[in-house]
Specification:
single chain; 203 residues; Immunoglobulin-like; 2 domains; 4 helices; 10 strands; 26% helix
Length: 203
Amino acid sequence: MQPGASFQNQWQLVTVIPDLRAKVISAEWLPGTLHLNLGLRVPVDQVQLQIIHAGAAIGHQLWKARAGEQQLEIPDDARKLSIFVVDRAGDSVAQLHLGSIYECYGKAKSGAEELQRARIDLAGGESDTVEFKPFLAQKDVKELEFVKTVIAFANTYGGRIYVGANDDGILQGETELCRILQSIAVKLWPNRSPDSRAWFERK
């Protein structure tokens, strides 16, 4: 500090009481959509939801605030979101800022982070901690390779194995998964009718 500088509230005890009238419980920003969960301790007619879209042609939106989960449309050209719950006097009683698409807050955080990490891993290719493995049927020649990878990760720094992905990170899809499951069903229940195997495939 500069010599002679003054301090606000010097020699005073300051108690800050948080505003508990509204709270953002969780938020998840996906392409074109904001999943928002609000907690309100005041009647809904006393507060309003305001969302500012930085970088978008439509700068902001006003919504009726309501408690619980809701899904709101967000312009595709938005680059950042600022979410405010505002009372009748114009004061912000709750706020949250999301810096980029796929960012999330609260209970939604872990699932979205995992999804984003998977996208990055699949695009970045295999490494010392990331491996791609195809769907495996019983007695597949790659079964031993899969087990070796699990053991290697367990004995070093850990890692992530994406099952159902080719060596280049391209996902094999549901069709290939159903084909593998059907071949397993035939081996497990060779005497079952085709209808039974079809039921297993659907499940």
